[in-house]
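Exercise 3.2. Students should predict the tertiary structure of the chain below and write it as structure tokens, then compare their answer with the key that follows.

Predict this chain's 3D structure.
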Amino acid sequence: MNQLKLDLEKGREAVAKAGKQLIERGLIARTWGNVSCRVSKSRFVITPSGRSYQTLAPGEIVPVNIEDCSYEGNIEPSSEIGIHAEVYRKCPDVNFVIHTHQPCASAVSVLRENIDVGEVNPSARELLGDAVVSVAYGLPGSRELKEEVASALKPSRVKAYLLTAHGALCLGLDSEDAFRVTSELEKTCRKYIGKRYRELYGGFGGGTETGGMLEADLDQIRVHFVLKHKLEQDPRPEDIESCFDPLQLFYNSIREESQFRLYTGGSSENPFPEKDGSSSVFELGENGLAYGSKNEPFSGYLDNQYRAAVEAHRSIYRVYDEVNAIIHAVSPNIVACSRVGRFMYPLLDDFAQIIGAGIPVVSDGQNSDKLANKIAGQFRGKNAVLIANSGAICRGSSRNDVEAAVQILDKNCKAFIVASLLGRVEPISKEKCILMRNNYLKRYSRKDLLK
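Answer key:
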């Protein structure tokens, strides 16, 4: 085997492996983000468009010409090949590129600010360079975004870039170096949030150290966000203790033909636990019978809160045939935004693509039937709805789809909190959101199923 072919195979293997690591490390959801590796002076290989990284094989990694972005084979490469090509043209020492949608970096990207690494995280300066550079906004896969990246590149001086309202671009000598950059970038962005907060609002209380910032500090930031919008006052210890408990629980569910299974014991790590006593089955027909986890008649008492949950899930499944999974999302970021009670605008591209052009807040002060009908009605054209003071209900065509929606909603809520306190909220325009949503539905959402 000649050296050129050997390098191509090694590059494909490295990229396929990195794609799986992106999912494992929570740096992306679904097929968002992309990875490439330089395999010669004139070529690089890159992840394909719209295919699951969890099952990605080296043979699906696409060879691309650096000069003109032409590619080999019948598998379409990532829509961001132009960005990767610009990096390899202008940065001769870079051999691996990772584009992520990691949470803190994505949140900080909406501030549209460069980060002085020496001031924020001095120990990372040798790895990241002098600064983390903000790149002006451009639609995903567009010529505009490619040109913005090209103009922002600083060869040999910067290895991490924040793509406004989009994510991060991390450069490395090889895959290990590029992944170290992604990890250090996330720590640096987390520290930057803390630094900016201290500058604007003062110090923090105590807590457990996590990556240079206290976990209690993050709670204080969320509480400050809620109180700034609702009460215009500084957070108190008692506020922090109660701010992130949803007032009402709606649980999670899976459609099972003419029934649905409601899981009351789910968690963010395992929303659909397969254990006795943690679920009950309900018929989709109005006032349908209910069954316990062993298909025995359900004997539990349906109090008002439980009935509201049952009716909400039943209404969504009855109205939307394409929905097969529902999660009640109650992460601290999502609950904080639900307590503010304001329409959630897309601050990040993947929110616009997967969730929709924005989601409303449904009032919780209604009886169970009216609340269920209101929730179901608000889902048209979107995959999530905020419930006042109680988090959000997310829907999807599969477990994977709804879990991705929860992950992306949480990230957009984090960005909304950061922008509200440390900068200003600048939503992506409705026109661009609709364009991205339609493009996603037509071009990307089914690709992995159709290959």
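Discussion points: The domain at 252-450 is CATH 3.40.225.10 (L-fuculose-1-phosphate Aldolase). The radius of gyration is 23 Å.
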